Every structure is written in structure tokens, then in C-alpha cells.
Amino acid sequence: KRMTDGGILHPARRERWSTRAKQATNRLVVVDIPLLVETRAESLFDVVVVVGASERTQGRRMIEQRSLSEDLARKILASQWSLHIKMRGATHVVWNDSGPSLLESQADLFASYLRLKYD
Fold this sequence. Notes:
mainly alpha, 52% helix, two-stranded parallel sheet, 119 residues
């Protein structure tokens, strides 16, 4: 079952990041919302970044990092919206089929881009 904005958890989380964004002194506020597109909240943001990886990589990471069984990882992935739908809701996509160091480099470059554009 997919949670939508009418679910129990999401309004509380939305209130938490919304309050922090209103209190922020910087023009640039970054929030990490894994189900942003599924809750149809992308219109609340100027920039939406989707970090994607192949289904194979996602499954492998779930098994290795979260100690899930292959069957459970497959079921979790099947219950989520497809990556191509999530990417359609994005203004930017970061592809993360590699390791943490490459993702960190990409994040640093993207942060520099955002600072130049919005500061």
C-alpha cells in the first residue's frame, strides 16, 4: 500500500521540514524526502533532485547495507513507484550506481551549482 499525503506519517514530516524552511536564514534549504514524488509534494519546491540507481544496484544495497533478504528487497522495490516516474518529477537527476565517493563528488558539484544560481 502506498502512502499518500492523506496518510498518518507524511503530514507530521511535512510540518517538520516546512517549519525548518520557514525559520531558515539562508535562501537555500535542502530537505531529504524519499517519498516526495509519491506524495505529490514536488510542486512545493523550486528544485527537485532525484537520486537514482539501477534496480540491481538498489536491490544489492538493500541486501548489503540493510541486511534484507533478496525476496524482501525485491518486494520493497516492486511496491515503489518506478524510477522513470520519479525522474519525471525532478528538475535534476543524479545517477548513483557507483560508490559513496563519486556520489559525494556529484553532491559537491551540484551544491556549487545551486549556490551560484540562488545566492
